[in-house]
Design goal:
This protein is of the alpha+beta class. It folds into 2 domains: about 90 residues, GIY-YIG endonuclease (3-Layer(aba) Sandwich); about 120 residues, no CATH class. Helices cover about 30% and strands about 25% of the residues. The protein has 8 helices and 10 strands. A 6-stranded antiparallel sheet has the order 8-7-6-5-9-10. A hairpin with a 2-residue loop joins strand 7 and strand 8. The protein is elongated, with a radius of gyration of 24 Å. About 5% of the residues have low confidence.
């Protein structure tokens, strides 16, 4: 009998945290706080009473928080929270995410999510296409509308460098499912995708050709890794 492989447990992103601690700890218990967090990196938040004032990141939390007791933020906060992060390369994204959600008054800049797609435009197109389909169905033009959308998708394969190129080093197979139907495609080393004999420049253009309507190819298409089929967007998180 073959032994079943144990599923690998993913390591937690956060190693530790402490929340709503008085800023006086830096004056009265400097040695204790230094011994506890040392030179660890992570994300921190500053509060004035119950109100969030500022969010930041630091490669050395102890020093950065100590600086904020004397710099331009001095006197504008009296409590802090820290979150120790395992991988330093994710800290900036975490900081940006918190800044966009909470919008602290002490942060002059808004967090940038440069490695993530803004799906609002795609949602708008999807809603618009859905409305067109509903109208076409009412007027008995459903099949004609879908056919035109599919033809347009096959002609529009995208321009510029394939967005997948920077995340892969070799080709592989992908698949997607919609209303019980499974679609298969091939990703080449160049980042282009071949679906139904047509080459597409991006996951989304290939997904539109498969579904006949606007959709995000990063979530529609899946690839196999570790025995599981996961969305293409996982490639951008590595």
């Amino acid at each position: 009998m073959k032994k079943k492989k144990k599923a690998r447990k993913s390591r937690p992103l956060l190693l530790g945290y402490m929340e709503r601690i008085s800023s006086k700890v830096f004056e009265e218990y400097s040695k204790e706080i230094t011994a506890l967090i040392g030179k660890q990196h992570g994300v921190y938040a500053l509060y004035k009473g119950k109100r969030l004032y500022y969010v930041g990141l630091a490669s050395n939390l102890r020093i950065r928080l100590g600086q904020h007791t004397k710099d331009k933020h001095s006197g504008k906060w009296d409590k802090f929270s820290i979150y120790l992060v395992r991988k330093a390369d994710h800290i900036k994204e975490l900081e940006s995410l918190i800044m966009r959600v909470a919008a602290p008054e002490g942060n002059a800049a808004r967090g940038k999510l440069k490695h993530a797609d803004n799906l609002k435009a795609e949602l708008r197109k999807s809603i618009e296409n859905s409305n067109k389909e509903r109208i076409s169905a009412m007027l008995g033009e459903r099949r004609t509308a879908r056919k035109r959308t599919a033809q347009k998708s096959r002609r529009s394969t995208g321009r510029g460098a394939p967005p997948l190129a920077e995340y892969i080093s070799k080709g592989f197979r992908i698949r997607g499912e919609y209303k019980g139907q499974r679609f298969r495609a091939t990703v080449y080393k160049s980042g282009t995708i071949k679906f139904n004999g047509v080459l597409y420049n991006s996951p989304s253009s290939a997904a539109v050709a498969a579904r006949g309507k606007q959709t995000s190819g990063w979530t529609f298409w899946r690839y196999k890794t570790g025995g599981e089929w996961v969305p293409l967007q996982e490639l951008r998180r590595k």
